[in-house]
Amino acid sequence: MLWRELDLSVARGEFIAVLGPNGSGKTSLLRVLLGQLGLSAGRARIGGAEPRAGHPDIGYIPQQRTIDAGVQLRGTDLVGLGVDGHRWGLGLRGRAERRRKVAAAIADVGAEKFARAPLESMSGGEQQRLRVAQALVGDPAVLLCDEPLLSLDLASQQLVSGLIDRRRRDHGTAVLFVTHEINPILPLVDRVLYLVDGKFRIGTPDEVMTSAVLSELYQTDVDVLRVRGRLVVVGTGDTMDALGTAGAHCHGDPGTPHIPDPAGSDSGRQPRQAHT
After folding, report:
1. How far apart, in whole angstroms, are the C-alpha atoms of residue 17 and residue 204?
2. Are strands 199-203 and 223-227 parallel, antiparallel or unpaired?
3. Helices (H), 10-74
């Protein structure tokens, strides 16, 4: 069981950070909303409808991934998959509209200078900027982000998170943002959903990111400190080992190692219940 009796409603224009150790169900929550994973109990809704693959109201931004050498895909091709990657065949009018949407999305993220280059020649930050464009090209009402800042340098993290925040402020797009490190997005976050061993807590960052709350969730001593406006989550002795195994760590303190989710780390377990 990943979680049960999770009752979460995301308002228009709200930014929610989803935190927790490896295997706590963060990615599984997104898979439920993407229509890729069913619930054993309860229900999930996107705009009042059941989640399904290719839902036009959902945009999805994955982790930055290395592009295999030899993959013949340009940035414009990647963004175009957000328009018609789920279907075949477009008429002449449809092709013109597709080109217009792709060009507009690329302009929105400021990627015009490199969008026609092969993906393999781009930096991780440039690739991720185009993945943001791909997610936004369909004008989604909800943006699901699965560790989109992972492996990016600080400047690219700020750029990508800023693009996501601008989208939600300008268009009222709701954002569900899975991450291991809250500091790059801390000024943007309205609420935090913290998942640990089937338990959870929902609230503002000041309500959730406290020593008392995280100690209760982890059932061990956890200290939450503020250092120069940044949150640092630490333990001592055996507690530090437990946090390391669970995947918790200093949130965004420069030079502090973190343990990212391995691919599919929680995808093989079935969530018990959720309402979104």
Report:
1. 10
2. unpaired
3. 26-33
109-151 pLDDT, tens digit each? 999 999 999 998 899 999 999 999 999 998 999 999 999 998 8
Q: Contact, 261 vs 27, CB < 8 A?
A: yes
Helix then strand then coil, in percent of the chain rounded to 5, is 35, 20, 45
Cβ contacts of residue 163 below 8 Å, gap of 6+?
Answer: 108, 109, 129, 132
**Domains plus CATH for the chain?**
6-275 (3.40.50.300)
Q: What is the pTM of this model?
A: 0.79
CB 265 within 8 A of CB 24: no
Distance CA 247, CA 160 (A): 23
| pLDDT score of 192 | 95
What confidence tens digit (pLDDT) does each residue in 148-178 have?
A: 998 899 999 999 999 999 999 999 999 999 9
| Chain-centroid distance, C-alpha 92 | 35
* pLDDT, mean of residues 188-214: 92
Q: Specify whether the backbone of 126 is left (phi greater than 0), alpha (psi in -120 to 50) or beta.
A: alpha
Looking at the predicted structure, is the pLDDT value of residue 187 above 70?
yes
* 46 touches 142 (CB < 8 A): yes
For residues 234 and 242, give the distance between their C-alpha atoms in angstroms, rounded to a whole number.
11
